Amino acid sequence: MTLLLEIYHKLYTTFGPQHWWPGDSSFEVAVGAVLTQNTNWGNVEKAILNLKRKGVLSAKALHEMQRDDLAALIRPAGYYNVKAGRLKSFIAFLMEEAHGSMKVLKKGTLQELRKKLLDVNGIGQETADSILLYALEKPAFVIDAYTKRVLSRHGILEQERSYEDFQELFLSSLKREVRLFNEYHALFVRVGKTFCKTRNPLCSECPLYGLQYTHG
DNA sequence: TGCCAGGCCGGGT
DNA sequence: ACCCGGCATGGC
User: Fold this and answer.
1) Which nucleotide is the nearest neighbour of A149, by CA and C1'?
2) Rounded to two decimals, what is the model's pTM?
3) Residues A134-183: tens digit of each pLDDT
4) Domain ranges in chain A?
5) Is the CB of A38 under 7 A from strand C?
6) Is the CB of A37 within 7 Å of strand C?
7) d(CA A185, CA A142)
8) Which CATH class is domain A26-135?
9) Which of residues 75-114 of A touch strand B (CB under 7 A)?
10) Does residue A21 have a cis bond before it (omega within 30 degrees)?
11) Using one digit for the tens of pLDDT, what is the confidence trace for A104-146?
């Protein structure tokens, strides 16, 4: 068994299924992906709840809304002016590309959609992959701060390495399945939150403790 | 109370 | 090709 698969099994055994991504629709998932940029998920939930209460959690409604009005609603998510612009950029793309329909957008291929998403202002690699995986159900492996931190703390790949380097690690050794990629990334967030906080050094409580030490 | 949270952009070197 | 400042709220 490969190292990456072994890590997956250890995490899954410890934490069980994570049931990601929280959201009632693929559109909501995509909105959440933008709002959660460098932001606590709890704050994102408050922002999304505001949109739901106003009845504007749809491409059409948000497309027609003024940027500043949207900003006021998503205020709890932080960076609200920036994120209001980013949401409107994404929605303008969705309207242009798929008449505002996530279902229509889903018809594209992973590579084609990834390239187009990266051209949208405010969508970088992690957000693009999150939308691809969790909203559009394409096998894109999401690399985030937790993934990098957990892997680097266990001596598998240095934190300074690029997004592509980390992603290649997974793509080259795992079967490209949505179900696996979904659960795996969610498990990294889980283990990161539980045992791998920014401040804490490598901790012996972690299910991955003692896995592999190539340095440190 | 300061630090942190499921990044990204634009300008500078 | 990197490096950095800016963007902001809420919870512990």
Assistant:
1) B6
2) 0.96
3) 999 999 999 999 999 999 999 999 999 999 999 999 999 999 999 999 99
4) 3-19+142-195, 26-135
5) yes
6) no
7) 6
8) mainly alpha
9) 78-79, 82
10) yes
11) 999 999 999 999 999 999 999 999 999 999 999 999 999 999 9
